[in-house]
Amino acid sequence: MRLSSSLYIRKLLASIHPPISPQSPRESKQLLNVLESAFQRHLDEKHPSPKAGHDAHHASESIPDPAQRVTHSTHSHLDTILGHPLFKQQSLTFLQTRGLAATAVKTFDNALLKKALDSYLVQSCALQYLQGREKQGSLPNKDEGLAPRLARWFNAMSAPEKEDLLLNTKHMEPLVSVMYIDGYEREVWQWLQVLYECSFNNLTSIPSDESAPDGMAYLRAEDRLVSLMIKETARRSRLQEAVQLYTQAHEYRLKSRGKSAPEPLQHSWRQVAGAILLQNKLSQKRVSAPLYNLLLRYGIPIESSPFDPAILQVYHPDSPSAKSLYQRLRSSSFVDELAKWQKSPNKLVRKIWLGSILDAAGLSLAQGHDHEAREFLQFAERTYPDFLRPHEEEADTAERLQLARQEMLVRKEFRSSGFATAPALQALV
Fold it and tell me: 292 with 316: CB under 8 angstroms?
């Protein structure tokens, strides 16, 4: 192989004058610096530092010691490589990919470090966290979420601060949802215990018991918190536990207040009754008959709730019956109270009632009570003209019921935002 002239001359000189090793520590250090400088140039050419562009304008401002420049530059570059996010170990591994949930957790942590955390900011973080969790699913580790932070924050509060938070239903609702979605519902039970203790201490110092404004505030807060717990439990298809929550809360109020008719748990009853009616026939398999009987016993009538116990009797696990509802609908006072709830802007109440009346008609028909079935259908058509068309020309009750069910399934929303006009709500004859 032929050599170039320059390479030939270089090899000739090397054979005449071979490289001489450094004769002193100074020369050795100089040679080492030269080698490190060459390595640094090669490293910068092949793998430029991410900070090179950012630090370029600072180069003229800070000139390091020539003896340390190469070593410092090399170490700085290696630190930059090791500082890449891929090499970092974070306690919150999900933060890199969790969007809204991650932002909520970071906001909470930063505010806590700066001692700027209040109930309004906590509520905002909880709402944002829930939005993120709904979109992105479960956490790789439940300890990485917002719930454990909320638990520690609550436990660090003073007694008056806990009391103020528990009495604020608006702030409590998203917090309870966060605790359940992260699997920390046991902490919510402790919150309820704290509320019970606050309520007991408050009421024992007030001679007039719950007639006092403060006493009523505690009773309403208990009702709201229990209803939130029922809502989250039923949402996870644990209907038996949801019913137990209501019956236990009712029995506790009976014992603690020492009255046969304490302040009713209106919100809790509405929540548990609505869950049963929405799941209708499924609830017959998910709630035991003894517990269902207890629920009916502790139910709240139409005067204080849109869901009278008579409508729940249609879905009894062992002995479903529409007779009680039929008798109630024959009462003009009952129908008048029902009309008030029908005027609620919440269309879900109307839809639940319509579905239950059709179920009552189907149950009556199956049990051989054709007359009652027709009466239920006529009541539904009169009460919900914006949802059902009259089918009185249909002689067959079963076919008429089937047509009504089809209309209900097809119609996802009501045709109008109004309600059945008076005198559409009329008692059964």
Answer: yes
